[in-house]
Amino acid sequence: MRLLLYPLVICIITANFCQGQPVVMYPGDTNNDGTANHFDLLPIGIAYGSVGPPRFPASLVWVPQQAEPWPQTLPVSQINLAFVDCNGMDTINSLDVVAIGLNYDSVQGPPAFPPPSPYQPKLTDTCFSCPKPDIAITFNKDVVDVTGELEAYIRLVYPPGVPSSLGALGIAFDVEYHYTNEIIDSLTQVFPDQFPANRMYVAATHTNVLATGSLPPPGRIGFAAAGRGQNVFFSTDTLLTVEFIITDMIIRDEAADTFSLNISNILILNRLEQVICMGNITRDSVIIVSAKAPPASGPFVRILPNPVGDILIVESPESPVEKVEIYGLNGACVLQEMASEQNRIELPVGALSPGLWLVVVQTKAGVFTNKFLK
Prior knowledge:
- By secondary structure, this protein is mainly beta.
- Helix content is 8%, strand content 34%.
- It has three domains: 2-118, no CATH class; 134-289, Immunoglobulin-like (Sandwich); 302-373, Immunoglobulin-like.
- The chain has helices at residues 2-20, 41-46, 97-102; strands spanning 23-25, 65-67, 134-139, 143-145, 148-157, 170-177, 189-192, 199-204, 220-227, 237-246, 256-259, 261-269, 281-283, 286-289, 302-304, 311-315, 321-327, 333-342, 344-348, 356-363, 366-373.
- The strands form six sheets. The protein has a five-stranded mixed beta sheet, with no helix packed on it. The protein has a four-stranded antiparallel beta sheet with strand order 8-9-6-12. Strands 18-17-20-21 form a four-stranded antiparallel beta sheet, with no helix packed on it.
- A hairpin with a 5-residue loop joins strand 17 (321-327) and strand 18 (333-342).
């Protein structure tokens, strides 16, 4: 009898030892795949509201941190929820999303424990009964002159009448686009849909993420949306709006340029961490009509540098300057400088906010208008 019980006792001791081993995690890498990014929002949504032992000491700094293992794991990938509790405050909620923004695109140094491994191969359960949603990409314009704003809308499209139980908890994907000369990518903005208010978001552009951290390269956006412990996507819904700023600072030889968005690396999960298969992706494109050179009959005026920092220089060597005005894209005049027939003027523009501005130069030979980037 003792011989029969001996293997059982050894198994119990070994299991308790493994269960009691500390977890070593990096705050923001909730799926322990080695990198913090927008895909890490989905485990927070799945485990939302779970409670476990706090981490002490706890920090949001991207360094390996030891934590007591939680008794719960994610249902399919079996990742311990100590990885998901980013701030170490014993409850998984929207405050844990902050760590993703702070450490976005950071890569683990010394490996976590258990060691990191790719997330998607761990998702071995697929919900075949769940309807396949489509993604539709549209623009607010079919043709746009090289000036002003262009908006893209990315929607998740479901057939009518899908019950929430067959819907999705969250979705994460990459948006890629051709980084044309006309797009000022540093001004690209993402506006997640804010209604209803039962969702969390991570959106990262070339210059902005939830908080400081590394950023995607030009021409790429990382996006994720997830519910708080429940399926929130089961009907046609706008996920996000992307605002692009178009400029005519660069004169191109081509008559037009075609602009479109591509969606890649799509991951859709339900609240049971089951994978939901993707349907079709439909996308429109927009034609950006290139700017034309100013007519030769107008006054010859140079503005430099462009982009500008603190001082904008206006030079009109052929005709003295009488007045210079700077306007925002909304048409409001923010600066006016009278000139006493000078051929060169220096304008202080350091107080202007970053973005596109319009300069109007009145000379004895006529009026010159152009845009500059602050």
